[in-house]
Amino acid sequence: PAFTFDPHPSPVDADERARLLVDPGFGRVFTDHMVTIRYSSAAGWHDARIGPREPLTIDTATAVLHYAQEIFEGLKAYRLADGGTALFRPERNAARFRDSARRMAMAELPEALFLESIRRLVQTEREWIPTLDGGALYLRPFMIASEVFLGVKPSAEYIFAVIASSVGAYFKGGAPAVSLWISENYTRAAPGGTGAAKCGGNYASSLVAQAEAIRQGCDQVLFLDAAERRWIEELGGMNIFFVFDDGMLATPPLTGTILPGITRDSILRIARDLGFEVREEPYAIDQCRADAESGRLREAFACGTAAVVTPIGRMLSRQGDFTIGGGGPGQTTQRLRQTLVGIQTGVAEDRHGWLERL
Ligand code: PLP
Ligand code: COI
User: Fold this and answer.
1) What global pTM score does this model have?
2) Which of ligand 1's atoms lies nearest the C-alpha of 263?
3) Mean pLDDT throughout 300-321?
4) How far does the centroid of ligand 2 lie from the alpha carbon of residue 154, in Å?
5) Residue 184 predicted with pLDDT over 80
6) What is the pLDDT, as a whole number, of residue 158?
7) What is its EC number (predicted)?
């Protein structure tokens, strides 16, 4: 479908925007416009529009409100060192969005339409990219089941939308290293479940575990596998990597219960380019504790679009806590972070053609 553009009648003025962009935090400052595209099984994808960001008015019997048929994505538009604007591997988000839709029995948005939505919104909202270090325009594409019907079945209608938020660091104070609470009471995803899909329900079910982590004085929850409660999976909203004393790196394999992170995939590639050996293999929590105590495990870090690369300094559970390496940012972690951010901001060589200039 062709896009229509309805400019916002009263966009935020330049002074107010500048004030909001000084310290935007994460996910609280929104731009003026949004994309919406509608779907019905009879008409297909139609009504593609960029218009003012405004409330969606939906019936109280709309399917998403009852059975949570909803998916989303998260990616950033970066301000380049030369003043340009770029996306990082957006085609991977488009593909993952389709995979998520399939898992949730939703209509699949063609990848070209996903990408066109993102590009158009970024072009419209370029001025909202913060200039602060680590700042970006966080894009949130999502889709909801919009049929008005209470039977339990895949919706025949959907609304796809993209909103944008000016963001700084995800962790307050740009935390030098975060701490993890090892969740024993709760798991995130079981084999055959929705762990590899980016659906809202995964996050709803993680909140009680995350709240427990906060109560224990930790920044994030670490989930173990649902079957044995033994193998490290991922955090509530990030993948995890380990760095060993022999220079080897490891990250849990994609077995269907963790989100296939685009940052994870990029780190795997970058680490190999830098000459590291990287293994995608299961890592047991008891082994992790033993390796941290013996010094074999030197560093650990979380990675994701929002978190970028964040060092993990400490892990806590009912069995007690342990420190990883010196408890602060490790050398390898910093080197990987610097290379990734360098590519994303156009100052490091983009060997794999990951950057899309707009
Ligand atoms: N794991 C979970 C559960 C996430 O929500 C995210 C964030 O999107 C990630 C991992 C990292 O994925 P990506 O690197 O594609 O942002
Ligand atoms: C992202 O990194 O894009 C996510 O979805 C994670 C969430 C914690 C904001």
Assistant:
1) 0.97
2) 14
3) 96
4) 26
5) yes
6) 98
7) 2.6.1.42
